[in-house]
Q: What sequence folds into this?
């Protein structure tokens, strides 16, 4: 009977996930169609695997998921590179909550809420593959901390180091935020473990030496796997961020003070307080600012609307914005979180995640809650963490954990009722979760804008002019009109700060309404076309052709240790005996 319950819950979880993911990415599953993702390639060279090898040799970065570069066509994996990570994130949440003593229906339900939560999933619309790389591994750290303390097995400590390292490779800023959160949870669990064992006989008490040994194993695995990532962050990412700040990108004109320029740069994309309403009220301020997604969505008739809120608005501007994602957590997720708080207010775990979620929400407000965010900004590396709205990822995580406790309260209440048959409790949770997933997936699907895989929406035409920074209305109109005349009837188009010559055979998807801002902060508008056109496949880089010009030894060590860690992960999955709460007393 236990086996049936175990596998029945997993199959229901997998089926609900597959249905939701299929709905979100409907229209892009064929090999010749992909969703719009400006920050990620949607066309690939014929020798894609060889090019990947050259790139790996230059960076030394390798995570287990990179094996897909050698399996089938890269076009097969375009959507799955986003679908599989959220599936593993859902499993990670279920693994964590199952260890905290929640039932399978509640644990899997919370995992599904996390997978389809707006800011976790809809970032595929911008690309942001590094974030999805993190979520493949990082969520498991919370469950592994519990098991490392409760069981003290070396494999749990080793896997903790491995998932933290794997998550660091492609999204260092978000990895840093979640690693700090993981460290806070580690300290909390450490204190809870010590207090729970305070009254036990000396031999059975929690032993600090055992913790030190385990932590040393975690640290060793973390360093050995993460060396290429640390090298890249120190010598590449930080320097790149300093260059961005020095160049004044996205900073209002007229700012000359370096400290103020840095503050403006870092706190751009702060979450306006009124956008908190979107946590439970989907689309309250619209959907996206991305002209490509809007143009294709309007063509499909999916009802997508331009985002009209303040997120992404230049400092001191009276209007305008830019965002490519949703903040929707789900009305049912929020409702279940409230139930979890009200019914579990004496539970230390509930209070911990309630407090953390509140703090992270304050951090996400950024410049709109300046006294609080100045604390974050003053911390080591705090002045490198761009876009405070990223803290909303952590807020979503905490809300979903609380929702898991809410689902558990509903489940326990139904199980306790003698007038109801036993199957009613899991059936009710299944129904609630299905309703929540349907609602979330409906919102997420708005951000899926299919287009031909051999086409791109990118600046591949000839650059004919540069849009002046902080232009006046007259300057912009003069530049646009002049270049229209120069192009001999070809439709010019704008991508970023440049105007490009529209290539022959261009398909006009617009026009689309663009906003610009004068130096005094006033808004003016200009209608420019959104262009889709057949593109040549990108040429391979001339750099890195010779093996051995990158951190080869470092990469080999990382791969070998990663291979051992994957073996441990499989062994742990096959030999898991956690069927209830991990006990600390």
A:
């Amino acid at each position: 009977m236990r086996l049936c319950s175990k596998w029945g819950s997993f199959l229901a979880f997998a089926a609900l996930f597959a249905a939701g993911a299929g709905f979100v990415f409907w229209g892009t599953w064929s090999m010749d169609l992909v969703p719009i993702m400006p920050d990620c390639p949607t066309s690939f060279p014929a020798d894609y695997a060889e090019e990947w090898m050259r790139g790996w040799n230059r960076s030394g970065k390798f995570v287990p998921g990179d094996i897909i570069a050698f399996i089938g066509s890269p076009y097969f994996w375009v959507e799955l590179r986003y679908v599989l990570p959220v599936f593993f994130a859902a499993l990670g949440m279920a693994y964590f909550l199952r260890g905290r003593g929640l039932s399978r229906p509640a644990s899997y339900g919370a995992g599904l809420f996390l997978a389809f939560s707006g800011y976790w999933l809809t970032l595929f619309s911008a690309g942001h593959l590094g974030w999805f790389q993190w979520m493949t591994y990082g969520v498991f750290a919370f469950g592994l901390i519990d098991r490392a303390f409760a069981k003290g097995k070396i494999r749990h400590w080793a896997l903790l180091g491995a998932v933290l390292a794997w998550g660091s490779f492609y999204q260092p800023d978000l990895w840093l935020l979640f690693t700090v959160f993981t460290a806070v949870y580690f300290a909390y669990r450490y204190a809870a473990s010590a207090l729970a064992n305070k009254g036990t006989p000396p031999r059975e008490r929690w032993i600090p030496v055992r913790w030190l040994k385990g932590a040393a194993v975690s640290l060793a695995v973390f360093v050995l796997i993460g060396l290429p990532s640390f090298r890249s962050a120190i010598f590449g990412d930080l320097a790149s961020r300093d260059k961005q700040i020095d160049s004044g990108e996205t900073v209002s004109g007229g700012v000359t003070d370096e400290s103020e320029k840095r503050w403006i740069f870092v706190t751009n994309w702060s979450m306006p307080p009124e956008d908190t309403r979107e946590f439970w009220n989907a689309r309250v301020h619209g959907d996206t600012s991305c002209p490509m997604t809007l143009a294709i969505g309007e063509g499909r008739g999916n009802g997508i609307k331009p985002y009209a809120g303040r997120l992404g608005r230049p400092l001191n501007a009276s209007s305008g914005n830019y965002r490519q994602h949703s903040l929707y957590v789900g009305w049912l997720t929020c409702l279940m979180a409230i139930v979890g708080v009200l019914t579990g207010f004496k539970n230390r775990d509930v209070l911990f995640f309630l407090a953390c979620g509140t703090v992270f929400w304050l951090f996400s407000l950024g410049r709109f809650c300046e006294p609080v965010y100045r604390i974050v900004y003053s911390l080591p590396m705090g002045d490198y963490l761009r876009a405070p709205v990223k803290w909303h990822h952590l807020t979503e995580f905490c809300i979903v954990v609380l929702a898991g406790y809410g689902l558990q309260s509903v489940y326990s209440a139904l199980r306790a009722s003698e007038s109801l048959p036993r199957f009613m409790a899991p059936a009710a949770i299944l129904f609630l979760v299905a309703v929540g997933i349907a609602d979330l997936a409906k919102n997420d699907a708005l951000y899926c804008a299919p287009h031909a895989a051999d086409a791109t929406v990118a600046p591949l035409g000839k650059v004919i002019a540069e849009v002046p920074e902080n232009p006046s209305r007259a300057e912009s109109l003069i530049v646009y009109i002049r270049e229209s005349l120069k192009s001999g009837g070809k439709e010019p188009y704008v991508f970023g700060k440049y105007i490009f010559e529209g290539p022959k055979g261009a398909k006009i998807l617009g026009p689309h309404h663009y906003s610009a801002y004068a130096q005094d902060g006033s808004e003016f508008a200009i209608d420019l076309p959104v262009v889709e056109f057949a593109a040549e496949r990108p040429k391979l880089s001339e750099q890195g052709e010779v093996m051995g010009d990158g951190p080869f030894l470092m990469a080999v060590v990382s791969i070998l240790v990663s291979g051992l860690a994957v073996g441990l992960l499989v062994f742990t999955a096959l030999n898991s005996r956690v069927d209830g709460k991990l006990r600390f007393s």
